[in-house]
Amino acid sequence: MTRDPKPQISEELLHGYADGLLSEADRRRVKAYLDAHPDKAAQVADWTRQNAAIDALFPQSEAERHAQALTLPSRGPARRAPWPQAMRLAAMLALVAVGLAGGWLARGGFESRATALSVNLVREAINAHAIFTAEVLHPVEVTAADESHLVGWLSKRLGTRIVAPDLTASGYQLIGGRLLPADAGPAAQFMYENAAGRRITVYATGGSPGTLASFQFDRENGISGIYWQDQRLRYAVVGKLSRDQLTALATEVYRQLI
Questions:
Q1: How many CB atoms lie within 10 A of CB 2?
Q2: Which whole-number Å values give the CA distances from 171 to 31, 138, 166, 196, 235, in the listed order?
Q3: Which SS3 state, helix, strand or coil, does residue 246 take?
Q4: Cα separation values, 238 from 6, 129, 226, Å
Q5: Helices vs strands, H then E, count in the chain
Q6: According to the model, what pLDDT value does residue 116 have?
Q7: For residues 85 and 44, is the Cβ–Cβ distance under 8 A?
Q8: 0.70 surpassed by pTM
Q9: Domains of the chain
Q10: What is the pLDDT of residues 193-233, one digit of tens each?
Q11: What residues contact residue 50 under an 8 Å CB cut-off, 6+ apart?
């Protein structure tokens, strides 16, 4: 029987290989593993192509220009090991390079292990998602039929303009939304549903003025959330989806909010 070379290769190392962030020794370990696992090699190759596509859309120079004015609070060691993301959405989209998947990653010379996001944000968003997407009769307070009123009401309560992203091109229709309490004050939740009945939510609450933070990923009890912060609000896109599926939706939400 052929021995599996270095079988204990974590997903963090696979993403690090795709992003070109590993030491030479780790790179050799992962290369040997991929040589023995064609399915994983194909997946890593796909991540590498995604990285190139994201770089083409969001040049590193743009990320660096915005990051020069960024102020991030200091933070102790993260609770998880760094996990380089499959896509460079962190640096390119939110223009700050901290990691995806609940860890922190330095990219392009930016400072690692730092974030401007409350650690409770994704938990609030995931908990709200779990509670209200399970509702059959009353999943939302205001339906999509009265979207103008919904958006105006939530904008007034959050103290800043907010929109309900249009996700029809991604296969999701707006059901409606509701106002929720959050640590940072009032929060807005927009709920969407696809033809198969799968629901996702977009969550927004107050942020720290002038502070940016990038896409980060977390998963609790089978529900995934990708969250970030712009200069006005903190956001999360939540659903029972794979990381790549949720990242694609979060990217579309982000594009409509900038």
A1: 5
A2: 37, 22, 10, 10, 20
A3: helix
A4: 34, 7, 7
A5: 8, 7
A6: 41
A7: no
A8: no
A9: 11-93 (no CATH), 121-257 (3.30.200.100)
A10: 999 999 999 999 987 666 666 678 888 888 999 888 887 88
A11: 86, 87
